[in-house]
Amino acid sequence: GAVVSQHPSRVICKSGTSVKIECRSLDFQATTMFWYRQFPKQSLMLMATSNEGSKATYEQGVEKDKFLINHASLTLSTLTVTSAHPEDSSFYICSALDPRDYPYEQYFGPGTRLTVT
Amino acid sequence: AQSVTQPDIHITVSEGASLELRCNYSYGATPYLFWYVQSPGQGLQLLLKYFSGDTLVQGIKGFEAEFKRSQSSFNLRKPSVHWSDAAEYFCAVGAPLNFGNEKLTFGTGTRLTIIP
Fold it and tell me: Rounded to a whole number, what is the distance in Å from the CA of B63 to chain A's nearest CA?
């Protein structure tokens, strides 16, 4: 089956610094990836849709200058949280569409726990 | 816009007992429906999905779900739960008209606790 990885699995950073999270499709090429945010004991909220070679589409209320998304290749999308603050602490999960499936199915990464101190 | 409601925030079931988790959706046409399971601190694993055809869908780990259009429901069932089934369960709906750019809307989740 399709596998999606995320790195790092956990990261702690100081307030004001930036942190990058990587999302990789390991055995397929993903033209579309998604980034979600999940607060403790809550559901997943879609932050943005990332398409290879084009700008990401952000959901309403998500600051594009704060959450920079780059989908530079068919197997890698990155989310950079810029000038992080404690309120950015959350669980970030990515998913990728496998175009070999029909209808397309999202495969999820294991998530990244971000803690901003 | 589509939406998903999972009315039960937390359910406790005895090991070996049957399980039903409820999911209601709102969408103008027949949606794509999914059930995912999430263990603590982990990503999501797909249990099953419905796109069309037979309304009773079989998934992994002994789970099944039934699509009922008249009730706008897609409830998840398992005849006999195991302690390893303790986790968070999410129902999700996707819009089938946007191929290649599916956006999923998730319910708020149901936390399942298994007691001996």
Answer: 19
